Amino acid sequence: MDSFYELAKNRRSIRKYLDKPVEREKIDSILRTALMSPASKRANGWEFIVVDDREKLVKLSQCRDFGSKFVAEAPMAIVVAYDPEKSDVWFEDASIAATFIQLAAEDLGLGSCWVQVYKRHYNETTTSEDYIKDLLGIPATLRVLNMITIGYKDEERKPYDEAKLLYDKLHYNQF
Ligand SMILES: Cc1cc2nc3c(=O)[nH]c(=O)nc-3n(C[C@H](O)[C@H](O)[C@H](O)COP(=O)(O)O)c2cc1C
Question: Could you read off the pLDDT of 72-112 as tens digits, one per residue?
Fold first, then answer.
C-alpha cells in the first residue's frame, strides 16, 4: 500500500478471518497507534482490552442479537472503553482511537470490523455495555464504545469505486 489514499480506498469491513493468530509485534504496533490517536485536551481516557481467549470471544459475540456473531470466530478483538470522567467528548476520543486501530490493522495487511456496543442491548434489561463490562471486569464507571475484530482476511472485498462516491455531499463555502 503506497499511500494513505490507497489504504482508505481498499479498507473494507472484514468479517471472515483465516484461522491464524495475529503476530504479537503487529498487535503491539496497532496498540501503540491507538495510544497516539488525538484526544481532546490530551485527556487519554481510553482503555483498550485485547481479547484472544476463544471462550471470551464467543461470549463477546453474544453481546447483541445481531451484527456481532462473527466475533466468535475472529482470532482477536480489541474492546475500546473510556472513562467519561476524563472528557466531556469521550465518544469522539474513543471513536478516533477505534478508527486509528482499524487503519493500523489495514496498513499491516490485516482485516478488521467495528462492532457497535454503545447504545446496543444484550436483552430487554441489560445493555451490551453492561454485559461486556461484567464479562471482562471493566469498571462500572467506564463506557464501552465498541469492539474491533482483527485478523488475516478470509474474504475478498472490492475497494471503493471512486466513480460512485457521493460527490453531492461536498460543499464549498456554502451548503
Ligand atoms: C459506528 C459504526 C458501527 C458499526 N457497527 C457494526 C456492527 O455492529 N456490526 C458489523 O458487522 N459492522 C458494523 N460496522 C461496519 C459497517 O457496517 C461498515 O463500515 C459499513 O457497512 C461500510 O462498509 P465498509 O467498512 O466495508 O466500507 C459499523 C461501522 C461503524 C462506523
Answer: 999 999 999 999 999 999 999 999 999 999 999 999 999 99
Q: Taking CB atoms and a 6 Å cutoff, what residues make up the pocket around ligand 1?
A: 12-13, 15, 67, 113-116, 157
Q: Whose Cα sits closest to atom 3 in ligand 1?
A: 116
Of 137, 135, 136, 117, nearest to 127 by C-alpha is 117
Mind listing the domains of the chain with CATH numbers? 4-155 (3.40.109.10)
On whether the CB atoms of residues 77 and 51 are closer than 8 A, the answer is yes
Can you spell out the DSSP letters for 33-84?
HHHTS--GGG---EEEEEE--HHHHHHHHTSSSSS-GGGGGSSEEEEEEE-G
